[in-house]
Amino acid sequence: MKIAVVGTGYVGLVTGVVLASLGNDVICVDKDREKLDRISKGQAPIYEPGLEELIQRSLSDGYLRVSDSIIDSARASDIVFIAVGTPPAEDGSPDLSAVREVAAEIAAGIESYTIVVNKSTVPVGSGDLVANIILSKGVPADRFDVVSNPEFLREGSAIRDTLEPDRIVIGAKNPEAAQMLVELYAPLNCKAFITDLNTAELIKYASNSFLALKISFINALSQICEACGADVGDAAAGIGADSRIGSAFLHAGLGWGGSCFPKDVRGMISTSQQFGYDFRLLKEVIDINDSQVARLLDRIENRLGGFAGRTVALLGLAFKANTDDIREARSLILIEHILGRGGKVQACDPVAVDVVRRFYPDVTYCHTPYESVTGADAAVVVTEWNEFKQLDLARIAGLMKQPLMFDGRRIYSREKAERAGLEYFAIGSSAPNEAPLPT
Length: 439
Ligand code: UDX
Hints:
Elements lengths: L1 E5 L3 H12 L3 E5 L3 H8 L10 H10 L3 E4 L2 H6 L3 E4 L14 H13 L4 E5 L7 H11 L7 E5 L9 H6 L4 E5 L2 H11 L6 E4 L1 H32 L3 H9 L20 H14 L5 H25 L6 E5 L14 H11 L3 E5 L4 H7 L4 E2 L3 H5 L4 E4 L4 H4 L3 H7 L4 E4 L6 H6 L3 E4 L13
Parallel strand pairs: 1-2, 1-4, 2-3, 4-5, 5-6, 7-8, 9-10, 9-12, 10-11, 12-13, 13-14
Antiparallel strand pairs: 6-7
Helix pairs in contact: 1-3, 5-6, 9-11, 9-12, 11-12
The structure holds uridine-5'-diphosphate-xylopyranose.
Uridine-5'-diphosphate-xylopyranose binds next to helix 9.
């Protein structure tokens, strides 16, 4: 099939490249020429395992090209995906201006029957909004259909998630349009759920909100575990073994960040508000998430007797492992707070250092975790990178000014850390020593 994908962010680029790798003629569209140049040279503008190889293969097989013209690309395609950003506005509702602009341009390019697919995460009613914009530009109703086809890929495993999805959700008014999408995805051998536009849009928000809720639930439990001396890791294993609950997304720690959960939980709350429901449960989910970082900062501050004149090593900057994405990363809150109180930060990350440096030039950036803990008064595990799991903890303890480790992702065992000579606190285990250290 002839496909155009507008927007070359995580969702758009991965979708476009995967569809090209399945043998479709795909045009990836963006107004950022620099990004397009990189893609056409076989480079991935974002860090995502496997993406660059797939771009190169699709280019050399002749299935992938790039364009900065939405109109020309829409004219040349049977299916046009909208995969542009919908960042949260001040009030938490998603900003749909990019979706609106793109819909108007697609309309200008439609000459024969075209399916317009919304892949951007959008509130209920956005499919109708896109259809109305296209109609208002004079495109006859029988020349196009709008379909909602939300994306569930995770950064870091985006290619695999797209090639092997748990489910494909298709929302459409016209069953024939839905069937076209079913055929497009047929090579993936995954069951497609066909429903109406509003339900498909709701499924995306609700899925991410539910996952965020699961994490906040276990994080709330982590606070109780710290107080009563229980262990949240064992508790999660015991709870998750119930097949009705499941063990995924029960890993306690500093909480969720990234481009989706924070935006989509707020989006779900604002959509609910719009339809007269006050989703207080989700407001609490956000509060619990915020409190995880705040509580850890309090613990470190107490133990250090304040941050002024202290050096804190941050192991990890990305919002999670296997990505260089720092949107809503917990590391940024830690950096702001520590620097703001007169402390110093020495940070390392396998891939996200360059992006953070642009925003926080005052942080000392290190090549290795060993370099970043050297002379530090405390070390904090912020991102669960595999590279950090095998560190020589005795060497870490020896390099630090105070061998004090706060594990915000629970990647070490207490026994191993203490044997290595570290004073070790992991979120969700018993409370740490709170007596202030001498300066
Ligand atoms: C998420 C959804 O999983 C995906 O389906 C959707 O399309 C986009 O949003 P992503 O943001 O890439 O994907 O990352 P994910 O792996 O879901 O993790 C989100 C955040 O939750 C990360 O900050 C991660 O560290 C945190 N997390 C995840 C936990 O704190 N505990 C867990 O048990 C799982």
